[in-house]
Design a protein that fits this description.
Oligomer: heterodimer
Structural class of chain B: alpha/beta
Helix content of chain A: under 10%
Shape of chain B: globular
Helix content of chain B: 25-40%
Structural class of chain A: mainly beta
Number of helices of chain B: 13
Number of strands of chain A: 10
Order of helices and strands of chain A: EEEEEEEEEE
Number of helices of chain A: 0
Distance between the termini of chain B: 22 Å
CATH architecture of the largest domain in chain B: 3-Layer(aba) Sandwich
CATH superfamily of the largest domain in chain B: Thiolase/Chalcone synthase
Number of domains of chain B: 2
Strand content of chain B: 15-25%
Number of domains of chain A: 1
Radius of gyration of chain B: 21 Å
Order of helices and strands of chain B: EHEHEHEHHHEEEHHEHEHHHHEE
């Protein structure tokens, strides 16, 4: 089955992981398409893999969101070996008893479903490790 | 005219914040402008520049306002800088005077926001279509909001407070709720606040959860409102009446910063570094420090945001914000009252008006004209705003010695 990632920095395959655009001059990491480096203004980038394990350094449990967005969900920031990643915390109940600052988490993927051409979109989040 | 370093607020006005169903942005902005001009004892004929802020409108608010309050042909700058829009408009007028282009200028910020609901997030009509088609700077095949973190303001600022808790500890749901309790208590003395009811800790914590740990009463109130200020060079002020000189408020520092790049700053907005930088520059410019301040009005757009700025503005040791709040210092009876207006959580947050309304509050205290909520003997105050994305405006204001 054909698969596409939710975002282009999610690399699918046997070992799904995230990949950043790393500035070849100063090493700053970015997830989006780049025009230049925000830190040193360089214009040369290379792909670099992000570790799949990390620590939750900030989170919120969103219970009120824009129409069409399922709530509740846990949004947070995960420190993956010095690279901060924006992600949801998944595969655990979305409440303060099950989600805590400093908890160890690991990357996990899930299906967003098929489109009309039979292609599956795959998203990611972090689950308790 | 020569370039002037010496800048003063001559007149300033804010409208009642709240729901104004029969007034549009132009009505509210005009009320603020006419009030500020009357407060300063001047007219549109004296103004050399108009800087006008409005974030959510259709653009061109400055010219629309001129058509109601006076078309004199002066340059208009329409300003949009997120929640720092009002402060940016004020600073635009200040820069024009500093540059020697004029000796008096007007800044206004106005917003119609009552009933706007949740800000940030969603937005893209792109619902999950039938073909996964990558688009945008992340090549997303579906809306990332809600799937890869949250764009909603209560959720973003919740994480900012929680991040502080992760670094330094002690930042619990109850602590954030107690910050909100303080601001709601302060609002009971402010007749211009959108909401002026005291709330108990239990009411705040038991209110509808929006984005943990921010409940509804810990979020800034979307409302309508406007504020305007007349600024004048020191040289010109000294030609005006003794009464105008006595009531004028000195702008000891007017600073605007943005984020310097840091790891993670494009992941979760970093409201800390640019605030620290703005505060450092402002204290240096004003020739003082946090110990000189008698009151502070800052950007408590959410209870989780107020906490981090105790630290960012240097009111406590690094990492000491929880302890500083728990000391009671920031209540109106404490050592350094913070948000005696009730803050954005109760006074309300008509976005573009906020940056000037914060300054209005400080000016009222420095002029000893603040009635029931007067902080006795106030001589120096600081006003701070954060526009996410980010911009930080810091103004330090001093009582007139003229």
């Amino acid at each position: 089955m054909n698969q596409v990632p939710l975002v282009d920095y999610l690399v699918l395959g046997n070992q799904p992981h995230l990949a950043v655009n790393r500035c070849t001059s100063c090493g700053a990491n970015f997830f989006d398409r780049r025009n230049a480096c925000a830190a040193c203004f360089g214009t040369s980038f290379e792909k670099a893999d992000v570790p799949t394990g990390g620590v939750l350094t900030a989170f919120t449990i969103v219970t009120f969101a824009a129409p069409g967005i399922d709530v509740p969900f846990v949004a947070g920031v995960v420190d993956c070996g010095g690279i901060s990643v924006r992600a949801n915390v998944i595969n655990t109940p979305p409440d303060p008893e099950h989600v805590s600052l400093g908890m160890k988490v690991r990357l996990a993927t899930y299906s967003l479903g098929l489109d009309d051409q039979g292609t599956e979109a795959v998203g990611f989040g972090f689950e308790p490790a | 005219m020569s370039a002037s370093e010496d800048i003063w607020i001559l007149g300033i006005h804010m409208t009642k914040f709240g729901k104004h169903p029969t007034l549009d942005s132009v009505d509210l902005g005009a009320e603020a402008i006419i009030g500020a001009l009357a407060d300063g004892g001047v007219t549109m004929a004296d103004m050399g520049i108009l800087a006008a802020g409005n974030l959510m409108g259709s653009g061109g608010i400055g010219q629309q306002l001129q058509k109601q309050v006076g078309q004199t042909g002066i340059p208009v700058y329409n300003v949009s800088n997120a929640c720092a829009t009002g402060a940016t408009a004020l600073r635009t007028a200040i820069m024009a005077i500093r540059a020697g282009e004029c000796d008096m200028g007007l800044a206004v910020g106005v917003e119609k926001l009552a009933g706007a609901g949740l800000l940030g997030g969603g937005g893209k009509p792109k619902s999950d279509e039938k073909v996964w088609d990558p688009s945008g700077r992340y090549g997303a095949v579906a809306n990332p909001d809600g799937r890869i973190g949250t764009n909603t303001m209560p959720g973003v600022f919740a994480q900012i407070g929680m991040e502080y808790g992760h670094k330094y500890g002690g930042a619990t749901f109850e602590l954030f709720a107690r910050i909100s309790e303080k601001n709601h208590a302060h609002s009971t003395l402010n007749p211009l606040a959108a909401y002026s009811k005291a709330m108990t800790l239990e009411q705040i914590m038991g209110d509808m959860m929006i984005a943990y740990p921010n409940t509804r009463s810990m979020c800034s109130a979307n409302c309508d409102g406007a504020a305007a200020a007349v600024v004048v060079s020191g040289e010109k002020l000294r030609t005006l009446s003794k009464e105008q000189q006595r009531r004028a408020v000195k702008v000891s520092a007017s600073i605007l910063t943005t984020d310097p790049w840091e790891e993670a700053c494009q992941i979760l907005p970093n409201v800390n570094t640019l605030t620290k930088n703005a505060a450092t520059q402002a204290y240096e410019k004003a020739g003082g420090g946090p110990a000189d301040l008698d009151l502070v009005e800052w950007h408590d757009c959410f209870a989780t945001a107020e906490l981090v700025h105790y630290d960012n503005l240097g009111l406590c040791e690094e990492g000491g914000a929880v302890e500083f709040f728990e000391s009671g210092a920031t209540w109106r009876t404490g050592l350094l009252p913070v948000n005696v207006s009730g803050g954005l959580e109760s006074k309300g947050h008509p976005i573009a008006a906020t940056g000037i309304a914060n300054i209005w509050e400080i000016c009222q205290h420095l002029r000893d004209e603040c009635g029931d909520r007067q902080i006795e003997g106030a001589k120096v105050g600081l006003a701070h705003v954060i526009g996410l994305g980010s911009s930080c405006g810091v103004h330090i204001l001093e009582k007139s010695g003229l």
